[in-house]
């Protein structure tokens, strides 16, 4: 898990919010499916297994809360669905975000994460030259995955 449940509980309390089973389960589901890009409905189906009385509206509210707390990222993968994934952290203590990017195969539609972030120098240059401080970015690469390329050969 990118962030411990204890740290999450502490963060909720600091914001004056209740620690609820629903919130913990949503975070847990996202953490357990860290390499997946889940819709709110995907999250709902998995949380419902352990907490059958939960409603979809609660999932949406919880995901929005996690977005506001910068613990999850919202991504659009050109399929018309809003998807979520747990955020990456370099240093959980200081909250430095680590970005990752998505590789999207135009043949099979597979989406995978590329974890090396090589844009820090560019962000620093932008800030130095323009005074604009980049707080987030999202990058998608389109191409053909290894499996599809091998199948063609």
Automatic annotation (TrEMBL):
<feature type="binding site">
    <location>
        <position position="145"/>
    </location>
    <ligand>
        <name>Zn(2+)</name>
    </ligand>
</feature>
<keyword id="KW-0804">Transcription</keyword>
<feature type="binding site">
    <location>
        <position position="137"/>
    </location>
    <ligand>
        <name>Fe cation</name>
    </ligand>
</feature>
<keyword id="KW-0479">Metal-binding</keyword>
<dbReference type="Pfam" id="PF01475">
    <property type="entry name" value="FUR"/>
</dbReference>
<feature type="binding site">
    <location>
        <position position="108"/>
    </location>
    <ligand>
        <name>Zn(2+)</name>
    </ligand>
</feature>
<dbReference type="GO" id="GO:1900376">
    <property type="term" value="P:regulation of secondary metabolite biosynthetic process"/>
</dbReference>
<feature type="binding site">
    <location>
        <position position="105"/>
    </location>
    <ligand>
        <name>Zn(2+)</name>
    </ligand>
</feature>
<dbReference type="InterPro" id="IPR036390">
    <property type="entry name" value="WH_DNA-bd_sf"/>
</dbReference>
<protein>
    <submittedName>
        <fullName>Transcriptional repressor</fullName>
    </submittedName>
</protein>
<keyword id="KW-0408">Iron</keyword>
<dbReference type="GO" id="GO:0000976">
    <property type="term" value="F:transcription cis-regulatory region binding"/>
</dbReference>
<dbReference type="InterPro" id="IPR043135">
    <property type="entry name" value="Fur_C"/>
</dbReference>
<keyword id="KW-0678">Repressor</keyword>
<dbReference type="GO" id="GO:0003700">
    <property type="term" value="F:DNA-binding transcription factor activity"/>
</dbReference>
<keyword id="KW-0238">DNA-binding</keyword>
<keyword id="KW-0862">Zinc</keyword>
<feature type="binding site">
    <location>
        <position position="148"/>
    </location>
    <ligand>
        <name>Zn(2+)</name>
    </ligand>
</feature>
<keyword id="KW-0805">Transcription regulation</keyword>
<dbReference type="GO" id="GO:0045892">
    <property type="term" value="P:negative regulation of DNA-templated transcription"/>
</dbReference>
<dbReference type="GO" id="GO:0008270">
    <property type="term" value="F:zinc ion binding"/>
</dbReference>
<feature type="binding site">
    <location>
        <position position="99"/>
    </location>
    <ligand>
        <name>Fe cation</name>
    </ligand>
</feature>
<comment type="similarity">
    <text>Belongs to the Fur family.</text>
</comment>
<dbReference type="InterPro" id="IPR002481">
    <property type="entry name" value="FUR"/>
</dbReference>
<dbReference type="InterPro" id="IPR036388">
    <property type="entry name" value="WH-like_DNA-bd_sf"/>
</dbReference>
<feature type="binding site">
    <location>
        <position position="120"/>
    </location>
    <ligand>
        <name>Fe cation</name>
    </ligand>
</feature>
């Amino acid at each position: 898990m990118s962030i411990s449940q204890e740290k999450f509980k502490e963060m909720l309390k600091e914001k004056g919010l209740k620690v609820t089973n629903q919130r913990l389960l949503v975070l847990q589901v996202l953490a357990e499916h860290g390499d997946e890009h889940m819709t709110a409905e995907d999250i709902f189906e998995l949380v419902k297994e352990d907490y059958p009385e939960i409603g979809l509206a609660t999932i949406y509210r919880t995901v929005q809360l996690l977005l506001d707390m910068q613990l999850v990222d919202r991504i659009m993968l050109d399929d018309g669905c809003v998807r979520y994934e747990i955020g990456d952290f370099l240093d959980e203590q200081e909250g430095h975000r680590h970005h990752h990017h998505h590789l999207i195969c135009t043949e099979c539609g597979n989406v995978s994460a590329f974890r090396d972030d090589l844009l820090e120098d560019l962000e620093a240059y932008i800030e130095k030259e323009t005074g604009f401080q980049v707080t987030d970015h999202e990058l998608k690469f389109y191409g053909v995955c290894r499996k599809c390329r091998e199948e063609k050969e």
